Each structure stands twice: as structure tokens, then as C-alpha cells.
Amino acid sequence: METESVSYNMDDFHIALSTFDKAVCEACAVSNFTGSRYVVHYKGYSSNIFTRMCLHSQALISALPKTRWAKRDYECWEFSLIAPHVRALMEGYLLFFYLSEAPISEDEWYVKLNVMHLNDCTRRIRLHQNIRSTEDEAGFREQQTKLKERLKGSGFFHGLPSKLQKKLLKGNALMIPSRDELLEKLGLDIGEFNAFYDLVSNFTHILPISYYRSEANGRGTGVQNRTDLSYIVLSLIKAAHWLNISTDKMVELFPDANKVRKGKKSKFTLGPKENTKNHK
What range defines the domain where residue 260 resides? Predict the structure, then answer.
């Protein structure tokens, strides 16, 4: 995906920044208001994912030029400063809606949760293999075996296609549906979402797309330029949309949280001075 076909200017940037700023403020306020509640499991896990989305949103907006969230004596217009956080928001957006959907049964939620636990456990095994921590690795392998047995004992799990069961038991999947299946369920354009995900991934890592077209005093150097500016504006437009929809869902899960949504005047614990709860 290239932005040469869609070019943005500084006016577009200021509008997009203001829109995203408002979205971040409301999301943080809702997250603060709903934190530490004893609720049904799917709401609790969903709120944890939402908190991570808020943190990445704060990091994203703090990294931008001309932001009120951070003080600096220079401006850097390099797209890779925000690409990792945009990518995290895309992943969080899908995981949040997957977990926040009310399960049809306790057994379905049990399988969702244990698939996630198994994925986490499998990642920890690889981590401790790499650092040669054999005792910790053995402990997680024991846990991995128990998690697989839990899944095999579930009626809901046995109702899944056998090929999918085998895939899930490998521990490499975080969610039961694939990303494309989840995108289709959410009514999102699969090609567009995946293309943008690939774009931000290339700028999250140091891959050729991120440096093949670098230009002196321009693209890919941190100096203000049309391409990086357009990538940034497009990211802010999309990120504000994902965050607003997720905040709407949080209010659906916790209706009383709607009262703390006050745009850029929303109050929360960590953020710009004018938004902190103890500032008057």
C-alpha cells in the first residue's frame, strides 16, 4: 500500500491529531473508570486488552510531532516512530472484540480462555529454551500438557473441525478463528486491513520497504515530507476509528462509564496536565 495516491497536508494532520487526541482521552477515561471491577470473565479479560490499547495509544500520540502529550525541542516526521503502536492497536482491536463477545456457553468461554493460555504457555517455553532455563521450561511444559488435556475434555472443543483442533493444540494460535475469519465477521475489508497491517509491519521492523525509498532531506529521514506525513495522517484516522469503536463497546459492557466521556476534557490518571484528575 502506498499513499502517493492519497496525499495529505498539514491541515489534514492537525485535524487527524485533534480527532485522535479526543479518542485517546475518552478511552483512557473509560479505562480508568472501569478498572479493578469484579465482573464476569469475558468482560474482565476484555477490559485488560482495552487497557493495553490505551497504553499503546498514549505512546503513539506522545511520539508525534506537535503533540501536547510530550515536550521536545525538535520534530521528527519518521513514520516508524508510530508504526509499532499502530500495529499493536490493530491486533488489540481484533482481540478485544473477540474476547468481548458474550459467549454462548461457559464451555465456549472455557475453550477461548484455555486456547489463549496455551498460546501464552507455548511462547514462554520458547523463551526459556532460548535462555537455557531448563527448570522453568520444564514447568511450562507440564502446564502445557495440562492445558491440552483441558481442551481435549471440552465438548465445545470437540465440536470444532478436527483440523482446527490440531492447529489449536499446537499452541501457536491466540484465537480460535483466523484473522481473516474474524475480519469477515466484523464486516471489515480483509484486503484493506491486511495491506495496512503489512505496511506498518514493514516499518515496525527494518525491512526494505522502510528504507529503499529513503531520500536525502526527505522521506525516511525524519525531516517533514509528504510521504511520511501521509502515512501518519492515514494512521491517525484509522487509529481514532478503531479506538472510538472499542470505547463504544466498553461503554456497552459498562454503561455507567459513558458519563466520563467528555472529549479532550475527559479526566484520567496519567496524561497531559489538563486531563489529570487532580488538576484544576
Answer: 10-275
